[in-house]
Fold these 4 entries.
Entry 1:
Amino acid sequence: MSESMRALVAGGVGEPLDVLRLESRPVPVPEAGQALVRVRATPVHASDLHVLRGRYGFAPGFPTVGGHMECVGRIEALGPGVEGLEIGERVVVVAIPAVPGPRVAGTWQEYLVADTSRLLPVPDGLSDSSAAQLAVNPLTALLLVSRELDVRPGEWLLQTAAGSTVGRLVVQLARHLGVPTINVVRRRDAVEEIKALGGDEVICTQDEDLVRRVAEIAGPAGVRKAVDCVAGQVGAQVSQVLAPGGELVVYGALSTHRQTDPAALTIPLPARSLIYETKTVRGFWLNRWFGTASPADALSALSEVRDLVADDVLSIPRGEPFPLERFADAVAFAEAPAHGAKPLLVFDDDRDGGDT
């Protein structure tokens, strides 16, 4: 093992391509309870870029290695007293910062150290592309449907942004669980795609009225369970179609993706509806979930996700690989509209022929 490694480092807050630089850094040494992982592939998430722009829910100390979510690699070394893991074992590193709690080292580097409680062994039959994307989007879908809302078989689930990565995973998971879905999309050309995935009903806001269509599908009483990733007026309409006592979980705000004014990040909710119909609207943030879940519960949920992907219940879109030196292209790809794939920063490793 070489004594130095490449790392993609942000010098401060700003536009990613203005603040990111490739640097040579010493390979870290694992301490007790830690493992050194040689990274194979790591995604460039929109949230990673929000962190660099100072628009996310936490701010790292700068300079910082980029990549604050997940990666896949192999264990290169173990710290003192570590048991249950082996050198050479293939693992997913869950680098999602727990709020409250400490953060793991950034994933945009050749080697990183992580607590063993943040490592999930994965089978060699699972591609690097799928393994590198296990810990964010599929886990979010599982938690929203099965934990946050506990949607039961036969019970309608309404979701917005159904064409997003999480939205498509929600469709697949709901179908597996026997949960019928009402899926809201923005574009007419997405309707057939969502139906082909197993979505039961699809509403296109381009030419359909969301409130009226939900009443036609689920009845005038509305739906009891809903998830929203859009916020703004769409989020308000979803709250409107909730049945009395219904629950809405908001986990994103795509309608304000380019907004920098905090006052614009809103969902206008009618107070009378919330009060007299006792509806519940609450948020979900994966980082905060990791800060409150026990390590055992977190690994249990991740293991469930891994098995669902390995069993082809959940299909993760194949990532688009970019060598670390082409990080500028990866960032541009991450922000391109409707590309349908996640950019992956990949590292050469002649000893491993895994499929990225």
Entry 2:
Amino acid sequence: MSDGFCKVEREGALTVITIDRPEVMNALHPPAQEALAEAVDAFAADPSQWVAILTGAGTRAFCAGNDLKYHASGAPRWRLANGFGGVTARFDLDKPLIAAVNGVAMGGGLEIALACDLIVADAQATFALPEPKVGLAALAGGLQRLGRQIGSKRAMGMILTGRHVGAAEAQALGFVNEVAPAGQALAAAKRWAAEILACSPLAVRASKQALMRGLDEPSLAEAIRNERAYPAAQAMFASQDYVEGPKAFAEKRAPRWRGR
């Protein structure tokens, strides 16, 4: 599937969403943001799709963020309900989303990557929140997520300077899970996806939801007390897969997950 700004491919229970504007380093203008949001909406709504990878077309960029030339042209702009690209303010997606970062992830592009559950980067990837250099601020979640993910002092070192961080440093800082050889980010992300797909999809969603909601609880005790009552946990307890997992273990065979 393709609408000119995003390509969507499905490989079994895996959805691969590719931002397809390589001529502008996959920068997003409003129509491209809307296309990306619709692709993620479709993934979220499709019960046959359990994991998604988000990447960029070409080798130069994952996403260079907001299309500043479009911004400067005075062309119409609009905000999406779920944030930049329909991703950065989306808090109801319990399915795993992996960023496969090939090249540049700047500004809104980094904000999208930080909103994903895992980041796999190739060795040539570069990350930054350079908005202050052009009189802007990364107010699509990047400031809040980066501080939470790597600590305020480390985050301030990137945020206040707008400096570029390479893949190896990004992994050392803690917001990249794996650095793959140049050009291999998508392949590495598919390997991570395959490992997730070997697990119960409902258990994966229950685990993600418990972690993310638990971060908003007032205390560790409250988080532990409430996690069994979260909707994804309740769906897991009521599912056929909740029986299939232990049964497959007892029978010494691979489980046959149904996602229900």
Entry 3:
Amino acid sequence: MLHHELSLPVPVLVVEDEPLMQNRLKEILETIGYQAENILFAQDIKQAKELLNQHSASFALVDLGLPDGNGNEFIQHLKEYDDSIAILVISAWSTEDAIFAALKSGATGYVLKERDDLEVMMSIRSVLRGGAPIDPFIAQKILKHLDLEEKKTGQPATNDSINKILTPREHEILVLVSTGLSNKEIADQTLLSRYTVESHIKHIYRKLSVCTRTKAVDTARSLGLLD
């Protein structure tokens, strides 16, 4: 149990139409420390919106292929409801379009359904700790996409590609990081809290698969995300 490690945000909303996957996620969440009464299940976007109105939500696990539409529609709805809500996409879809669309809609992280329970659990735990886990297979596809684009055009990755990986706010903070500003100085300059800045920087680290500020700047420059 992780009660001592994490303060679990409740309730958690699971938007998933497959009964087997619902049961699997329920068991994983209970292993992490969630009580059954704090796990809400919706089988489609309509039901998810109704549950959100009735119970609110502090955390969401969202599938993309739903009976009444694409899960990205609900991710956007969630971000409008509460921009700070953590959203982990758990999907079978691994195409670049699906991945980029989910991240652009506001998903915090993205993990493939084919991963084993331990890997899915680690992704959920990462989100609960403020991380932004991206499935390794997906991270490789993103980097390959940028590399191919650069080879094709002979130019660094375009702004459109930057926006597919980093949100405008993350890119703004990464630029400030590259100038050598501390988190506190970045917070003062952007009028954000230090906690919010740190959260954005963690997301940047995960998306670029790095663990230090220097490496983040170096990697971003090599990908054409920074001048």
Entry 4:
Amino acid sequence: MSKTVELPRWIDVGALPLLNLLLALVVSGLVVLAIGENPVQVVEILLYGAFGYEEAWGYTLYYTTNFIFTGLAFAVAFHCGLFNIGAEGQAYIGGLGVTLAALYLDFLPFPIMLVVAMLAAMIFGAAWAYIPAYLQARRGSHVVITTIMFNFIASSLMVYLLVNVLRPEGSMTPESEQIAEHLRLPFIHDIAGALGIDMASSPLNLSFVYAIVISVMVWLFIWHTRWGYAIRTVGANAVAATYAGLEPGRFIIIAMMISGALSSFVALNEVMGVQHRL
């Protein structure tokens, strides 16, 4: 009879990710070598571009912010045994919610608007994730297929809205009006400057701090709440969860809606933080 051995924490958290990274570098290095380039030089260029000068750190963390939100979104669904491939579409629709709130409620002060924008993003993103979640939980449609399809539906919907509904009169560019200046998230270099710290200009904004806070909150939710435990139980064994009194379909929908809400926070970084429009 096979026996499950739990790996030491330092291997699970430290050694395995490092081994995965090294293997990825080796495999990609062989591909680079096969096309006649120097793998070491490629790695040097990558590292310099990401961390080699002061401005690069800001850009790296700015892009990282989007990956934090979408990574958390995927993680919550994965704990429930689901592969949410629809984070892109959910972020699109979350961006629609943030933009509509910012354009039509621009009379609100920034602190209130920030909360309203977060709620709008969550509602729109969760609502978009609800449809494939319902199809998985109640109709047996595979969530991988439906979430991929919904990415394309969201993209087409956004094109229609930006060309025919939200585009300012007289403009040929498929984009919305810019949100009011007082509703934009402050850049980190501006915050640092106000504190007397000299920092290179970059798109890094306050949403990065929010991403770190949300990461802690998701960890607490998954590992230290009853709902998080229920989601993990359904993901580990749906049949056993049913015998334990849990209804798998319900928690599939809950996990996917939370996942969609997390994906939608990408819009805070892009719409309110950098682009200032949809």
